[in-house]
Each structure stands twice: as C-alpha cells, then as structure tokens.
Design a protein that fits this description.
It is globular and about 55 Å long. The protein is α/β, with parallel strands linked by helices. The chain contains 6 helices and 7 strands, in the order αβαβββαβαβαβα. Helices cover about 30% and strands about 25% of the residues. A hairpin with a 2-residue loop joins strand 3 and strand 4. The chain has a 7-stranded mixed sheet, with helices on both faces.
C-alpha cells in the first residue's frame, strides 16, 4: 500500500538560510555572543595577544583579555524549522578590517555590539554599515560592573537614527542573544519591505 502524504507526515522543510554579521570594537563580546547561541561548535580564529601587538591593541577596560579574533568567528542557529542563521563575527581591530568587505557580502543584516565603557570603539562599525546601507541593530552588552544608562542617552551618544533598533543584552546568555538576532532579522526584513514599496510607488 502506498501511503498518502497526510499519512507519511509533512514533507521535509527546506530552510531559508540568512547571513548575519556580528561587529563591534575589540573585546566587546562578539566571540562570546556567537558561542552563546551556536548549535554547532563555533569556528574561531583567535590568537594570543603578544607584547609586539600591545602598542596597537588597546586593552584598557578589557585588561583580562588575552586573545583576539584575527579572521572571523562562525556559528549557526536554527530559529525556526524553516529559518537558519549563519553568524559571522568580524575582527574588532583596525588592522583586520580588510576582512569586513568579504564577510559582509550577501549579509541580510548586522549586530553592532557595544560596551558603554568604550562607546567610541563601535563608531567604525556603525559608520561601515550606514555607508553600505546594510540594516543593523545595536546591542548594548551589559558587562558586570559597567554603569547602566537609559537607552535614550546611549542612542544620543551614538548619534543613531531613530529607525535603528537598540537593545540591552547579555552576550553570554543564549535567550538574550536570540532576542537580538530575531530583532536584526525583523528590522532587516522591514527595511527591505519599505525599500520595495518605495521602488514600486
């Protein structure tokens, strides 16, 4: 007897795969964020910080940090049966920024991770995505011991456009990071829909 589709169950779903970048300054928690949610063992390209790099690697505020990402972090998370995100963490130091153009190719959107103790470190990432019209969300990584500021004050300090989402998060916490990633996808899709509407009118 040949089983009907209803008896065999639903046909397998072919998931949509989306690419999301995780950017921000040196030591802001990008590698931690990718590792917190990835359902596969994250690919990391970290190297030990050396004395030779001390003049160019500003570790003030993150003195305990002893490694740095030199190419990218990579992870994967299934948000729904039909939606998979590939996460690419960008290197934070200026001398590795040449990697950003390649990593951003085909990206739906980005998370710019921020540490309120070193806000100026994220300006380059915000500028990068604004110039290339890549939708992004700002995630404020709430480090222990860091002062807490109202969202409006942080938005003003970063000079963010009103349409750019800003969320408080904990890069170590899976559920907190998932909220940020869902926010990026929703924001990017809303931007795409708005763009399509502008083009057709």
């Amino acid at each position: 007897m040949i089983l009907g589709r209803s008896e065999r169950g639903k046909p397998p779903v072919e998931p949509v795969t989306l690419k999301i970048l995780v950017a921000g300054g040196f030591g802001v928690g990008k590698t931690t964020l990718v590792g917190a949610v990835s359902e596969i063992r994250p690919l990391r390209t970290e190297e030990l910080l050396t004395e030779a790099g001390r003049p160019v690697d500003d570790t003030s505020g993150v003195e305990a940090k002893n490694t740095t990402t030199v190419a990218m972090d990579f992870g994967r998370i299934t948000l729904r049966e039909d939606l998979v995100l590939y996460l690419f963490g960008t290197p934070g130091q200026e001398r590795f920024w040449f990697m950003w153009d390649e990593l951003s190719e085909g990206a739906l959107g980005a998370v710019v991770l921020v540490d309120t103790r070193r806000l100026e470190d994220c300006f380059a990432a915000i500028d990068y995505f604004e110039r290339r019209s890549i939708p992004f969300l700002v995630g404020v990584n709430c480090f222990e011991g860091a002062a807490r500021y109202p969202v409006g004050d942080i938005r003003q300090a970063l000079d963010l456009d009103d349409h750019v989402p800003l969320l408080m998060c904990d890069a170590r916490d899976r559920e907190s990071v998932k909220e940020v990633l869902v926010g990026v996808v929703q924001h990017a899709m809303a931007q795409a829909a708005q763009h399509r509407q502008t083009v057709t009118t």
